Each structure stands twice: as C-alpha cells, then as structure tokens.
Amino acid sequence: MSDFDPDQLAQELTIEEACTLLHGKDFWRLNGVPRLGIPSGFKVSDGPNGARGQDFLGGVTASCFPAGSCLGASFDVELAREVGKALARETRSKSACMLLGPTVNIHRSPLGGRNFESFSEDPVLTGLMASAYIQGLQSDGISATIKHFVCNDSETDRRTMSVVVEERTLREIYLRPFQIAFAKASPWGMMTSYNKVNGTYVGEQERLLQSVVREEWGVKDMMIVSDWWAVYSTTEAVLGGIDLEMPDSHFRGGGKLIEAAKGSKKVEAAVRRSAAKVLGLIKRAGGRNLQPELPERAEDLPEVRNFIRRAGAEGAVLLKNKDSILPLSKAMPIAVTGAFASVALAHGGGSASLNAHRKVSPLDGIRDYFTHIHYAPGAPADLLLPVVSSTPEGETGCVVEFVNPDGVLVETRHLSSSYLSALDRYPKDLQPGWTAIMRLKLRPATSGRHSLQISSPAEAILSIDGRELCRTEENPARRDYFLQAVLHKIAATAEIDMVAGQTYDVSIKYTSNEDYLYATNYTLNGVRFGFRESVDEDAVISQAVRVAEEAGTCVVCVGHSSDYETEGFDRDDLRLLGRQDDLIQALAESSAKVIVCVFTGCPIAMPWLDNVDAVIQCGYAGQELGYAVTDILSGVKNPSGRLVVTYPKRLEDNPSHGNFPGEGERVVYAEGTFVGYRHYVSRGVVSQFPFGFGLSYTSFSVDKLSVEGFDSFGPGRTCTLTVRVTNNGSVSGRHVVLLFVLPGDTASPVTRSAISLEA
C-alpha cells in the first residue's frame, strides 16, 4: 500500500470528496472515494463486550464476553489482552474493521447507568486494562475505539449536561485513562462523548482534542469519531477536531460542510486534515485492497466458550465466606432461587447488549455440576414487563405491518420479539405519519389478572381481541429514548383477566412521531410490548424458604436486569428492584445456609449482609456466566477477583452525593480528585467494602519488599518494586499485589489524596 498515502490523498481530493469522507454512509459504514479507488466497505461494530454486528435487536448471534467492570475485577492485564484478541476475531466475523470499545469512563457514582461498561473508579487501573485490551484487539488488525472522551460519567440528560470540572481533576482523574492508553497502546480511534465540559461540547473543544490529545500527548495517527448523533454543529465540530460524524450526515451533508470549506481556508484545511485521518484508518484495513463486505457470520467456538467461562470466573469477587461455607461439595443438597437464577444476566443494556450465541443461567450451570439441586423461582425483578418472543404455536416473535398515511402497505416484517426500534432500519419508502401495526397471539399458562404494557415516545394503542386497553401519547419532551433506556418512563400498563389456555389476539398500532433525532434531546420512533402473568410474590417467597430449608443450603441469585442497569439513564438508589431484598432476608431468617450471588456491574445496598453466610459479586460475566459462578461455588476455581469500586455503606457516603447526576443541565464535580477510594481513605469514611477487596479460599502473605531505582526516581524515570508472595494454604490460588503511593513530606500547594494506585 505504498501508493496509499493518506496525507497525499487528502490533498488530491476535491472538497466535495473530502467532505463526504467526514460523515457516515449509513449507521455502521464509512464512505469511499470511487474516483481514487478508495472503497466504501469500511464497517464498524458496537462493543465493547462483543461484536454485535449491524442489528440492535436479534440479528446474527455473537459471543458475549464479560463486561468491563467484571473484566476489571480480575486486575489481570494479560486476560484483558486475550479478550482483545478474541474480540478481533469476533469483529471480523461481522465483516467489520473497527470495534467501538473499550469504554474508559470513571465510576464517579455507584448510580451511573453505564458503569458496568467501564473498568473502575480508578484511572490507572482503567488505563492499564484498556491498554491491554487495545493491544490485543489491534494486534490482529482490528481498530479499537477508546471512548467516551471525556467526562461521560453519567447518563441523565447526557446530550445537554455540562460537566463543571477544574483542570487538575480533569487531568488526574478523567483524562488519565485516555493518556495511559495512548502512551501504551496507541488506539487507532477515539470516540467523543455527548456531553459538554465547562460549557462547551467536547467535540467542539479544540483545546482538548487538538492541544491536549494531538499536540501535548503526541497522538498524531488516530481518527476521532463522534458518538452516534453527538455532532451538534458544522464548522465548530470540524475545527474542534471531530474527524468523522456518525452515523449519518446531518451536519456535514446537504452541502453544509462543502459550503463552509469553500468559504474558509481554515475550514478547508481542517476538512483535509480530518480526511487524512479517515483515510489513515481505511489504510489500516487494507486501503484500496479493503475486502468487500461479507455476510455476517455466527462463530460459536468451543474454545471461545471456555475462555469466556474462565474470564467470567476471574472477575468474580468473594465478599463474604462465613465459617468457610464455600466451596460447596458436589453431592450436597442445594436449593437455588432468585429472580435471576434461571435467567442469565450476561450483560447490561444499551450499546453493550447483543444477541449472544447462548446464555447459560446460574441454574443451568449449577445443575450441570452439582448432584442434588432443588429449584424455586424468585419473584420478578424487571423494570419492564418481558417482551414476547414466541407465539402459542411455537413460532418466534411477531409480525409488523408498515403502512403509509394513504393506507398503502409498504412492508410486512417478522420480528424476533415484540420490540420495534428505529435503530434496526425501517423500510425506505415510508412517508411522514406512517403507522406500524404489531400483531401477536398470547396464550397464558395460568388464569388470573395479567399485565400488558406498551412503551413508546409517540402515540401507540394496545388492543386485545379488538378492544383498546391503553395507549401512550406523543410528547416531544421525552428524554433520550435510546434502546431500552427510560422506556419505563414512557410506558402504559393495563391489567386484564385472562383464562389459561385461551388464545388472545394482541395488536399495537403505532403512529410515528416527528423526526427528533437531531434535537438536543432526541427520541427515536419505536414501540415495545411486554407481558407477564400474575404472580403471588408472598407465595413465591414462602416456597423459596421451604425449598431452602429442605435442602439446608441455598444459593440465591439477584441482580439488575439489562433494562435497569443500562445506557441512557442513571439509577436513583442502591436498592435491588422488586422484592429481591425481601427474599434474601426471608431466607436468612430460615434455618438454611444462604449464599448470595450478585449479578450487577455496580455496588448495591446489602441490608441483609450480616445475616447471610456468603456473598459473591459475580458482575456481568458474559454468556457463560452460569458455568463461571458454578466454578467459584464448587471450588473448581479459587476466587481471585478484587472490587474495582468502593461499596458504600450508604449512598450519602459517596463523594459525588449531592452532585449527581446534575441539575439544570449542569453537574459539578465538586469532590475534585477525591473520587472513589481517595475520598473514603483520605476522609476516614468507612465503606461497606473497600476498593481492591476480595477474599480467597486460601490465604497469602506478602513480604520482602525491595526497591530498585528509587534514589534517582523522578519525572520520566522508573523504579522497580519486588515482593515475595506466599500461599499459606493448601489450595492453589492467585493473589493481586497493588501498589499505592502516599504523598511525601514536602509541602504541596494542593490537597492530595492519602493514597493513589500506581501499579
């Protein structure tokens, strides 16, 4: 590719050609330049815990890896590198050249909706794990996209929110993971965030994107892409440093950028500079020899399954093990219960969700290993009623008819579930004011007063057997309707008496709203239908207690569903949804030994902690999570994970409390650099569990510390610390050694944290 010189080619482009390169061809693809033989087959895919491919809902299946917070809990950079390598193959199976990951935002608050995607509350751990992930991914020719630059640490009103942060905090906490990753791994792509920093959208800040990243950090050979619809201007964004607007051309198409470039030498220079960055990315994928896009493939390989299982187990953190109740013996009777025992919480919601090849539930994994298992379902704990994914006849999903205002049927489409989203490409011939009619059949297994629910930002009418039950109304003020985010806030629910075995015809008529995609807070056309048969929750809890007492030992599986821990909104508190806490407390008051497995990507309140026997923080461990947690419960794997975030005793103890998620489109990072453990240690605040905490089935001692190079230690210099780690038990295990740095005796003009992680 010696003839493919991005800088030279950028100068040979016409202004029209250059501007075309600076926006997406469609949702996942880049434009090319036919005149110069530059193909338009460069495709990107969502990550960071799998390569989903082009479909948000359904689509070709993919491998689902542990989420960032679970992977981070391993504190294992080699594991992160292996994950990156595996993801490269996955990305290629979707005929993509670039994966949108890793996510390196900071866990500023335990309520952050997207925390599970990111590695930690600590910038150094985040930067080191991200660096290894990027190295693994790019070693096989797939571009990483480190994201979201910068301070995208909450989801509430993220497109209008301005983060108020002082310079030292910005650099020491929020920019540092990016800086570490660029120094160690040189990611080929970086994604800008939706939010503003100190009053200006990040994508329009030349100081951050050009002066800091490209000049101060020396990052020249890297392409900057906007988050999807995170470009808010034409000239300001291109001058600020966003090279590529995705997913389309709202601000850079229609002649807008061409006109601006022809009218200003400065804008034209910025356009050609950005065109060179886009061409540089295309060159890495093959340049003029870029392979034509192939159909997406599902590569479900045994070795990948086994690797995901191992990685998920490495991220499990043992928080309590009273009287060494764990590990459990293979032949002992065990009761399994909880809302998420038979459901596999493999990932969170939003961009990180995907259609996994399979999802092994905890119940499936436990049954596969242990001999005597007794199961009792837990009470439901979803934020939304479950979508319907099969008909009474056993067929998958439902049928949707797209109809134009003149009554002409445009297309009939089969959906894998009762969820219709604009992100999955509507028919091209639809006209403003079109309607979609979703049809499906329900046949309840039980008689009772059952619940039906629709969610939509526009008008949708739910009918059963021709009778209207409920409707939603159009409201342009609805905020950030994205994937499954905030759907609970735009839902209408009805209850109806239904008879077991009887078939009911359900229809949902949806009328499209205006195109709000480019409003500052956008909405997307779509509708979701959910259904649940009635549940006597008191009876369910009583049954679980009876089964647990009969077995003597109980594993209860709790967590956050992907519609509750998700991109698009932040949680209000630390509590588990539904009656999960009630179930645990009832079990704790029984005669059974109780082991709690927590499937979340963030801290939760544990009012029952003192009354249970063991707790495992399992995280979102990927598609093999049932086997991963079974390996920990059985002792096949000795837990070695550590907490990547401090677990507070109370929400009020968190340093961001009172300044999260923000108010009046403004969030003040008033805690400064005292984020996470820096706050708890420096200010003497007692936590539930500290950062880095994690138990084992054995014990270790660390001694014989030696230091080389400390006498000459200073800026740009390194020193080496060596310790001896001894396993004092009879079980093999793994121990993580963390190096924290304390402030020196020299007076400092700024207040520093009592400790900070450095290695």
Automatic annotation (TrEMBL):
Cross-referenced Gene3D superfamilies: Galactose-binding domain-like (2.60.120.260), Glycoside hydrolase family 3 C-terminal domain (3.40.50.1700), Glycoside hydrolase, family 3, N-terminal domain (3.20.20.300), Immunoglobulins (2.60.40.10)
Catalysed reaction, written as an equation: Hydrolysis of terminal, non-reducing beta-D-glucosyl residues with release of beta-D-glucose
Lineage of the species this protein comes from: Eukaryota, Fungi, Dikarya, Basidiomycota, Agaricomycotina
This protein's superkingdom? Eukaryota
Keywords carried by this UniProt record: Glycosidase, Hydrolase
The reply to whether Hydrolase figures as a keyword in the UniProt entry is yes
Q: What is this protein called?
A: beta-glucosidase
Record's keyword annotation contains Hydrolase = yes
